[in-house]
Amino acid sequence: MGVRKVTKGLMRAVVLILFCGLAMANPPLKDPIQYEEYYEREVVSGTGYVEKMISVVDKHIALEYYDVMTGDGELEMDTLHVYSQNANNLAKNLNDCDGSAPSNLNFFEDTKLTYEGLVPLQGAKFISSDGFYGGINAQVQEIFSVNRMEKYQIAYFGSTENSDIAHTVGLDTANSFNGTWGTDASMHKIFYKDIKSHEIFSGEFDVKKEIKFHESDGEVFGTQ
Known about the structure:
Blueprint: H1 2-23, E1 37-58, E2 63-84, E3 91-92, E4 103-104, E5 107-129, E6 138-158, E7 168-189, E8 193-214
């Protein structure tokens, strides 16, 4: 009996250690000494056919980002995409309204867009922190098909040690539209966490929404 009790106790201890190991927060990823960056700024105004696609996939910092759009109508757009493996080189303010200090990020997108046309403007956006490459296994997706839209939106991502928001995925958007627009968001940790969010609006709507996933490594959020 004594041996059985000891064996059961050891098994419980091993299971607890394994579970706690799985539940621990991922440490921030290393900023590489030799790093890569990408910058794209675009201002467009006109009437006609529109087709746009951008993707940024970096396994080193666990980033996966896609943005696609197509339509035929009247468009005005001012958009910025910035990506850096070294977060010290990418400082952006995530909330212009509260006067907060800029945050060091690994990816930032800022889009201002108006559209009107008989042919719907259709598009999708996807940003993910890939758990297989050391991220937090969280993702946010946007889809839309609209005949009219006014949109202001930022998407942001941090995963490395020099980021003020390491292991964070976020989308902040304010939309006015006629058509269909929606979001899907999820975060999954095997055996102990599953968060999902889904929304679709079809008709005439004004929507303001922020989605953010963050995993702390034990330090206060926003500090190094």
